[in-house]
């Protein structure tokens, strides 16, 4: 295409109503590649110790270096121990090498590292917004599928593999096939005790785990704009569980208020200029999406998973579907038609990049105050970052958890997945505020039911899967 | 850098489940070193072996059955490779000898990881995958032509799949994506010059 033709087309395109995604895409398009792909500029890269050493090692072995180390960050979260007094040693056999090798490689490459005992350590998708590393309108990638969490700030943030992480570090760009777009509109207001976790589980249950089909999914509607930033992060977090490339929410005043004053956010005149730019980052009226879905948020109930995919989820008042397959039922030890509420549990887990931020812990602690975990139930709370842990402790939330019978841990991904170290007792049924109920995800034979932190707490108290709204009707109401 | 993959014929093993996740393909506990190798043994460990941590083959798992010995193609259901972005899943498949996965849909990160490691991810409709699986069960080998975008059986039945030009070139030419991109160095520099003026807050060294 000639320069003049290209410019004419570009001007026409700018005059047309555009989606938020199109604005983010156009802003970062360095070059068009054959077959509808584009070379997209990457503004921020985040590594963690599970795959950081492999990516940095691969880069080095190929004789390449990091193009702009000032924009590459690394944190220890995936396999770092979460027991009090931790150091580089891990319960996972051989885990220490992941930490020490990633540390050495990150230092050598000149990256910003949030190390094991750093006050800024935490789960990558908790730390990045907390420090203002992710910004509206930015592109951010990490070799971690839950990078989509950060779309909550109006960024185009998505998970990649190690090879792409090497590519992003070496070139400051990625070669990306233009994704299709989808808008999911949540109308109405959420009912009491219903949370963003329930919004996303309901979407996946209704439209299947493959339903996002590589689209960039914009979450919109009254129930989404009403969410605080941490709630929006929970919603976007599980876009990957919907097979989306990522989720994104248009930035608004709540976003700007959240970011103001954070360490890596712009300041002074640069802040004003940035906010003016960020205010343009919304889908124009009349812009069209490749797919649109609508969900009545007011009709949602707390959700809980029954099977081995997040799409195997039902309202907590519901039952295992009659047509549930044999395989998930055999793994989960359930029968078709069996009610979820009332199912005895062995363990309760609050943590992960989905639900471990301060607001999650506050809501969980509010339900837990003055109550105790049922006898025989192992219960853990793992704050999403060291900053979340400190803030929770300053409010006395740690006491609420420990007095109720929860263990109170250092921050990290912890038992969201099993890497060969810590797990629950064999065969445990676990109610978990995490994102994946895959076979073996939390350990061989572990039966995971994913749910909101409120549902985890209600279940921990009851010793069986329980509706958090029933607790709210008690003494606290 | 992966070997170019233009055409391939081999034994196809049917694993016709939806939502086969990367924790199933390579459990996290099997990712024992920081490198990219030594992973084939851990491939599908939770299904392939009788007990966790052991190496006693479970005879009911498809890749342990004599009919599928030496399988180089996997047949899957929808949303294949969902879950964790771990490229180890694809490194394990490649090291095991898998050159193609034919499924009804793929999770996006897994799809990209396949292309970058010389494994062809081919999307076909459920009826086609079922037919290919039936043929594979009856002992037929399966052929792939990446350039033409076709999957075929010895009896001539052929199905087309689409692959974006970039992905096809990566597979058939074994191209190194970083080398390709570095040829656009000037475009990247020009972008940064323009973008720095427009969005200075993105460039962190300037804030120090």
From TrEMBL, chain B:
Q: Which SUPFAM superfamilies match?
A: LeuD/IlvD-like
Give a yes or no for keyword Amino-acid biosynthesis in this entry. Answer: yes
Read off the InterPro entries from this record. 3-IsopropMal_deHydase_ssu, Aconitase/3IPM_dehydase_swvl, AconitaseA/IPMdHydase_ssu_swvl, IPMI_Swivel, LeuD
- Residues covered by the Aconitase A/isopropylmalate dehydratase small subunit swivel domain: 4-125
- What reaction gets catalysed by this protein? (2R,3S)-3-isopropylmalate = (2S)-2-isopropylmalate
Q: Which Pfam families match?
A: Aconitase_C
Name the domain of life this protein comes from.
Bacteria
Q: Please name the pathway.
A: Amino-acid biosynthesis; L-leucine biosynthesis; L-leucine from 3-methyl-2-oxobutanoate: step 2/4
Q: What is its EC number?
A: 4.2.1.33
Recorded GO molecular functions are:
3-isopropylmalate dehydratase activity
Keywords noted in UniProt: Amino-acid biosynthesis, Branched-chain amino acid biosynthesis, Leucine biosynthesis, Lyase
Described purpose of this protein according to its UniProt entry: Catalyzes the isomerization between 2-isopropylmalate and 3-isopropylmalate, via the formation of 2-isopropylmaleate.
Q: Which family does it belong to?
A: Belongs to the LeuD family. LeuD type 1 subfamily.
Subunit description: Heterodimer of LeuC and LeuD.
Query: What's this protein's name?
Result: 3-isopropylmalate dehydratase small subunit
The gene is leuD
